[in-house]
User: Fold these one by one.
Assistant:
Number 1:
Amino acid sequence: MYSSVRRLEVDGDIAWYWGDESQGGRRKYFRMTEKGKATYDRNQSNWEYAKRVLDNLLERKGVVMHEQLTNYVDGVFAPYDGVKSVTELKADLLSDLQERFRELKAEGKDDETAFAMTIESIGDIEQTVREVANL
């Protein structure tokens, strides 16, 4: 901590002064200088920009995983396109898979692991789809 305070002082971002001794021993107090306020504002602006960039990347990653789930379900159901009972099953399954994926992410799983576990959780869906299509 002291090296950081010293650097801020050398850079002119903070200044110090001695406080009064009414509360006991002599104490050194620090205040932010005008230059320090400008540095803070610039760093705050840089932080907000970096945060927006990272948030956008993470959001995009979530969109990609959503698209992967959709593509997987579309591929499984492609041979039965237009069969009403299968279409309903597909919509329900996709909704359930997306919910399961969100749960796994909330548990701290990375995207790839959550995706794999989500797909594994449905078992042999192709057999179920064939059975529903033949109803």
Number 2:
Amino acid sequence: MQYFSLTAEFILIILIASLMGKKLWRAPANPGGNKMMDPKKMAKQMIDFYKSTFDNSFSAMLMLQEQMQRMGSMFIEQSTAMPEEGKKALNEWIKAYKKGCEEFKKAADENYKRVESFFSEGEKSEKPKTA
């Protein structure tokens, strides 16, 4: 079941990225022939790939959540069976959920920046090779 879930998520990410017109991964140019790619550069490209897939997945999730929230709000407003206290509680729950999503996105972005700075510091500290 786990394999199916990961495959479905990956297909969804690729579909969203293609619809948005973004390239998630570029094959690195290899002008020097059969030389191995620098591990730090490869790791940085992988982190960039993960960040772009996270951003695309997160934005797709937010779009779906906002659409469902609008539909739910219309249903709740038109419902005569739900008391006002229940409607207020649901609205507070929605606000808490949105705040949690914003905080999660902020934390993820900060951590991606930390990882990117780690790799950029590593590139700056390396001395250029002279031939």
